[in-house]
Input
Amino acid sequence: MKLSHLARLAALSMLIVASSWLSACHQSESTPWQLTDISGHMPDLSFRLTDDQGKTVTAADYRGKVALLYFGYTHCPDVCPLTLAQLHVVLQKLGPLADGVRILFVSVDPTRDTPAVLHDYVAAFDPRAVGLTGSPSDIEALTKRYRAAFTREPGKADGSYDVSHSSGIYVFDNTGKARLLATPTDPQDKLVHDLHLLLSPGHAP
Amino acid sequence: MKWQSLLASFAIGLIPAGAVHAAQADHVTASHAWIRLLPAKLPAAGYVTLQNAGSSAATLVSAHSAVYASVMLHESDVESGGMNGMHAVNQLAISATGKAMLAPAGYHLMLEQPDRVLKPGDKVEITLDFADRSHLPVQFAVRPANTADPN
Output
């Protein structure tokens, strides 16, 4: 996806500018983040979807929590479960701080992913994971909001089909502001580091 | 009728004889075989490390199991920060004295339609089929969905 390149470029150029300023006076103090900083580049968290209990929820229901937004689907046996298993490990490493985090797993396959299917699925990974589904148009609106494309591959003879989707994890702070973008290839410790920072009182701006 | 059954027993008898002569599977050892179990009967992924001790390549062409109606060799396409998807793979060569890893976010066996609800701790036998029609039965350990480091 072009987004991460753009974001990385933006982050990198900011870093270069910042470091050239700073070298004049103070040393160090560049960006505190280890992941890609998307502050100001992505809109605030906003949606109206159905959670895995069948309840209508909006982004406001998760204010006060750091939200990890990830698009996937349950008929994805490899990368989606790997990502969720890694997020589970990240939350374990955060200890009690992880209570301030919610994993929002948004299905890009709402036809098959009913609240009941999603409920069993997310529960198998982490108690702080929430499954979200909705109408195809609501899901599409959310993916477009974060430029997270997905495509449904041509169906197979037995009626099954595959879904390609963006693999990024969007990190929102507890006020719903977009802050960071992680990819499944980023080392877990970067996410642990940045979440720690984001969850600590008086964290870096 | 008698002749038919006689021919059938010949045919059955010949298959193992053929396998003895051309046995890629005999040179391949499997380790770290596990299945990431997903709830209900959702498709799951099977992973295994294959080591070829032979002096020629062994080529994995398919796999089958009595437990899963469908076992397919797949590869995930993961781009850093980009799209990810999956595609079917026709064959996977393990070079002479080489190794092939079926591991998360890469090659895996896509396992569909289990005949029963599995649980962590179960063992499932999956047979790997090689290009020369030799076979390697492997016991896969069933592990929980949120397993991060299985080994």
Summary: Chain B has one domain: 23-143. Chain B touches chain A at residues 36, 38-40, 42-45, 74, 76-86, 104-105, 108, 110-111, 144-148 (CB under 8 Å). Chain B has a mean pLDDT of 86. The longest helix of chain B spans residues 2-21.
